[in-house]
Design brief:
Blueprint lengths: L5 H16 L17 E5 L4 E5 L8 E6 L5 E7 L16 H12 L13 H13 L9 H4 L5 E4 L5 E5 L1
Antiparallel strand pairs: 1-2, 3-4, 4-5, 5-6
Length: 165
């Protein structure tokens, strides 16, 4: 490679990094049930740090937590290792997405289909619910989880009790 090619190569790499950092549509998912690594900028007092949600494990499971009396339970997305520090984004599918959509629909009063597919409606609902909690991101991650309310279900009937966490 000639010395005058180095700026071109570095510029091309920086352009790709910028596309992924901004969540450009060309950086979309492959359709295999996982989303591409999306990034966000976490602000500290005077500097910005790029944090990639691709470093977080995917929320592939649902954790069920029973009430003290055992008559009700709530469910929320977790990773394969049962950690709540996980992420979901466009293109993801499965039980974790379904639990998120139920929370958005039943407790956050967002109009979102409960179909287990993280599509445009779910992304808009997560971004809107995040605005209420101080965020604006269209993907689910620990900062969004902290602002979520989760529905309680009857252990006897599995029906929504009308209560949220």
């Amino acid at each position: 490679m000639a010395d005058d090619d180095v700026p071109l190569v570095v510029g091309g790499v920086l352009a790709l990094v910028a596309i992924f950092a901004l969540g450009h549509p060309s950086a979309g998912s492959s359709g295999t049930g996982t989303s591409s690594g999306t990034s966000t900028t976490a602000q500290s007092s005077s500097t910005a740090t790029l944090v990639s949600t691709s470093t977080l494990p995917k929320c592939t499971r649902v954790e069920r937590v029973r009430s003290r009396d055992g008559r009700s339970y709530t469910e929320f997305p977790v990773s394969a290792s049962r950690s709540r520090d996980c992420s979901l984004g466009r293109g993801d599918v499965g039980a974790g997405v379904t639990a998120l959509q139920r929370g958005l629909s039943l407790c956050m009063h967002e109009s979102v289909p409960v179909d287990g597919v993280y599509g445009a409606s779910t992304a808009r609902a997560v971004a809107h619910a995040g605005q209420v909690g101080g965020g604006t991101r269209a993907w689910y991650q620990p900062s969004a989880e902290r602002h979520m309310n989760w529905p309680w279900y009857s252990s006897a009937t599995t029906a929504f009790t009308g209560q949220c966490s």
